[in-house]
Design brief:
The chain is mainly β. The protein is built from one helix and eleven strands, in the order βββββββββαββ. The model has no long low-confidence stretch (mean pLDDT 93).
């Protein structure tokens, strides 16, 4: 899904680190693709995906836990709680696309899950 994201911050030391605001959600992402120059304060079309180095650490949530997107420390890692819809993770109005969720966790379709990811990737569209 494509969003209009406002760039809040570009990191001076790690060129792939970026702070974005999409709707009411502020997140720190890893720039996976950016085919053009970008500037703080402007809006750009982006897509989000999740990435985990050592496989997926997720659990089904049985209670009425609310959706959340929480950064883990000062890293790219996040704990995301949301609903699995059409093989994508939906939380706080954002859709995180992921092929592994579609293939390996289809049995959790429509369920609330919590997952820890190493980073949220952002791809800037042409």
């Amino acid at each position: 899904m494509t969003y209009q994201a406002k760039i809040l911050r570009l990191d001076d030391n790690i060129e792939e680190e970026i702070d974005l605001q999409i709707k009411d959600v502020k997140i720190t992402c890893f720039i996976a693709t950016c085919p053009y120059s970008i500037k703080v304060g402007l809006y750009y079309p982006v897509q989000l995906s999740i990435w985990s180095l050592d496989g997926y650490n997720l659990i089904e949530i049985k209670n009425n836990t609310g959706q959340s997107i929480n950064r883990l420390g000062n890293t790219f890692a996040y704990s995301i709680t949301g609903k699995l819809c059409n093989g994508n993770l939906v939380s706080k109005g954002l859709v995180f696309e992921d092929n592994i969720l579609k293939k390996e966790f289809a049995y959790l379709e429509g369920k609330m899950i919590s997952i820890k990811v190493d980073r949220i990737n952002v791809e800037f569209e042409h």
